[in-house]
Design a protein that fits this description.
- The structure is a single chain.
- This protein is mainly α.
- It folds into 2 domains: about 5-125; about 135-210, Nonspecific Lipid-transfer Protein, Chain A.
- It is about 50% helix and about 5% strand.
- It is built from 10 helices and 3 strands; from the N terminus they run H-H-H-H-H-H-H-H-E-E-E-H-H.
- A 3-stranded mixed sheet has the order 2-1-3.
- Helix 1 (about 5-20) runs antiparallel to helix 5 (about 85-95), helix 6 (about 110-120) crosses helix 7 (about 135-145) and helix 7 (about 135-145) runs parallel beside helix 9 (about 180-185).
- The longest helix is centred in the first third of the chain and has 20 residues, at about 5-20.
- About 35% of the residues are buried.
- The model has no long low-confidence stretch (mean pLDDT about 90).
Length: about 210
């Protein structure tokens, strides 16, 4: 995907996420997401912050988190989650047309973030949210090749991942196959992907997932 295609796909995802959140009962905002220790509210707040952070703010947050990248992301999200629901939704909707990226992020990072965090919200609430194939494929390749912070090549060594709905495969070894949407969740460390996958590598894969 080129940059304009990425921006276009990201706009669609962010608008869709704002619509999804706008329809949730208030109680669902306090329910656990797929991210361990994160409520739906926290994930939504993280998405709302996507176009707001500056390099200076990111540095301050990293110092507060004692150098922990994950701690920095979590702390800033939980703090922002104290804001009113309507404000968080409004910020996500406004971000749809933004061309800003958080400091140090790559062109595909915001799209990957929106796709996966959309599932982090939707799946535990029993809401079906289908990923568009090409953005999902591009994001899966991006995460596989980038490594940090999920390190899929290391975690999934000895397995070959094969999409059944689009031309995409990575790795070597016993096959794990399924929709590219599930494989994107897999490479980003979400055990919720497992029920949608099959293949000779499933026993080894299941033993490695937390």
């Amino acid at each position: 995907m080129n940059q304009e295609e990425i921006w276009a796909a990201l706009e669609v995802e962010r608008r869709g996420l704002a619509d999804l959140l706008d329809e949730l009962p208030q109680g669902d905002w306090e329910r656990p997401s797929l991210c361990a220790g994160w409520r739906v509210r926290d994930v939504a707040a993280h998405l709302a912050l996507a176009t707001q952070a500056t390099a200076g703010q990111a540095f301050v947050e990293l110092v507060k988190a004692r150098g922990s990248f994950n701690g920095m992301i979590y702390n800033s999200a939980v703090r922002h989650a104290r804001r009113p629901i309507a404000e968080i939704i409004g910020q996500i909707r406004e971000s749809a047309v933004s061309r800003r990226r958080a400091p140090t992020t790559k062109p595909l990072d915001p799209l990957f973030d929106a796709l996966v965090h959309g599932q982090d919200i939707a799946v535990p609430l029993g809401i079906e949210r289908v990923m568009p194939l090409e953005p999902a494929r591009a994001s899966a390749t991006h995460i596989w090749e980038r490594g940090f912070p999920f390190h899929p090549k290391r975690r999934l060594r000895g397995l070959r991942l094969v999409a059944t709905d689009v031309d995409w495969s990575v790795g070597e070894g016993d096959v794990v196959e399924g929709p590219v949407q599930a494989l994107l969740l897999l490479v980003s460390g979400r055990p919720a992907a497992l029920p949608s996958l099959s293949g000779t590598g499933m026993a080894a894969l299941t033993s490695r997932m937390p």
